[in-house]
Amino acid sequence: MAVSGAHAETPDTVFLEELTWTEIRDRIQAGGTTVIVPIGGTEQNGPHMAVGKHNVRVKALSEKIARTLGNALVAPVLAYVPEGQVSPPTGHMRFPGTLTVP
């Protein structure tokens, strides 16, 4: 069922990227004071695990924390962190699929 913008309900989400700017404004006016910035990483974790596992885990944990606090939203996951030198490769950078920031 389509609902006009003037009468639409605010989505039951704590993820900033899933809200419009007016919904964010309304959350702030209703007492929202905190934005959680989850930091994950994209790195090898062995041949048995996806390289984005940290991002999945930190997003789920951030949602739980935000809902527990009641006054928080969750920013998009920062999926890139220092993982080692590029040339010559060190640390996790020795494996395909790892991304780093200088």
What sequence of helices (H) and strands (E) makes up the elements? HEHE
Q: Biggest β-sheet: count, sense, barrel?
A: 2 strands, parallel
Count of spatially separate domains:
1
Unreliable stretches (pLDDT < 50, length at least 5) are none
Q: Structural class, judged by helices and strands?
A: mainly alpha
On the 0 to 100 scale, the average pLDDT is 91
Number of strands: 2
Number of helices: 2
Which percent bin holds the helix content?
25-40%
Intertermini distance: 48 Å
What is the beta-strand fraction? 5-15%
Strand order of the largest sheet: 1-2
**Oligomeric state of this protein:** single chain
Report the principal-axis shape: elongated
Rg calc: 18 Å
Task: Please explain how this structure is put together.
The chain has one domain. The protein has two helices and two strands. The longest helix is centred in the middle third of the chain and has 17 residues, at 53-69. Strands 1-2 form a two-stranded parallel sheet. It has helices spanning 21-29, 53-69, and strands at residues 34-36, 72-74. The chain has 102 residues and is mainly alpha-helical.
